Amino acid sequence: MRNHHAAELAALAALLADETRAAFCLALLDGRAWTAGELARHASVAPSTTTEHLNRLIEGGLLVGERQGRHRYVRLASDQVATLVEDLSSHQAPSEQASTLRQSTKQAALARARTCYDHLAGQLGVAVTDAMTRAGYLDQEHGFALTDAGLRWLTGPLGVDPATLQPARRPLARPCLDWTERRPHLGGLAGARLCERALQQRWVERIGTGRAVRLTRAGERTLLTA
C-alpha cells in the first residue's frame, strides 16, 4: 500500500531539489515580494523557465502569487515556509571559498547581517539574541521564551505595538538556527516585530536589493546594549 505521507514528503523535497527553484526561495527569504523578471535575472534563467518553476512552487504551496497591473509578484507562502528553507540551509555543508571578489563581498555581507524572512539573522541576529539573553529579556535555559522584562522592552523603549505580539498560530519567540553562525537567533512574532521596528527606525538599513543589511550607530546603541 502506498504511503501517502511519504509521497507528499518526497514531492516537497523534489520542489527544492532543483537549483533554480532553491535560488528563488532563498532570494525570497528577504521577506519581500519579487516579480518573475527580478527572479529570472537573479537566477540567470530565461523568463519562460522562470514561469515554469514558479508555477510548480505555487502549486506545491511554497509560494503565493498575485498580479498588480502588468506585473506578477510572488512571495513565500508563510513564515513556516521561510523557516523550512532557512532550517534546510543550516544543515548544508559549509560553502566553498568564493571565486570572485564580488561573491566574497556578498557572502561576507550576508554573514554579518541579513534578514531571515522577517527577522534579523547572521552575526547581528545572533548578537542581538545574546544581548537580550544577557539582559534577561530572553530565556534560553528553559526553552526559548520571551520574559516579562523582554516584553516590556519591546513595547516600551523599542515602541512595538503590544497588539502585534498576540500569539496566534505563530509562537511569540522561537529559536531559528542561523545557517552561517550555527547558533540560534530570535524568530517568531517577537523577532519579526523587532526587525520591523529596526528597519522603520533605521537601526538597520538594507544593502541594495538583497537580504543583507547594515547596522547603524543608532542601532548599535539600541539593539546591542539591551
Structure notes:
With 226 residues, this protein is an alpha+beta fold. It has two domains: 4-77, Winged helix-like DNA-binding domain superfamily/Winged helix DNA-binding domain (Arc Repressor Mutant, subunit A, Orthogonal Bundle); 85-223, no CATH class. The protein has ten helices and eleven strands. A three-stranded antiparallel sheet has the order 1-3-2. Helix 3 (36-43) crosses helix 4. The model has no long low-confidence stretch (mean pLDDT 88).
Fill in the keyword field for this structure.
11 strands, globular, alpha+beta, 226 residues, two-stranded antiparallel ribbon, 2 domains
If you compute it from the alpha carbons, what radius of gyration comes out, rounded to the nearest whole angstrom? 18 Å
Extract low-pLDDT stretches.
none
Question: What is the tally of beta strands?
Answer: 11
Side-by-side strand order of the widest sheet: 1-3-2
Please indicate the count of domains.
Answer: 2
| Overall pLDDT score | 88
Q: What profile does the largest beta sheet have?
A: 3 strands, antiparallel
Alpha-beta content class: alpha+beta
Structural shape: globular
Order of helices and strands: HHEHHEEHHEEHEEHEEHEEH
The amount of helix comes to 40-55%
Distance between the termini: 56 Å
Number of helices: 10
What share of the residues does DSSP label as strand, in percent?
15-25%
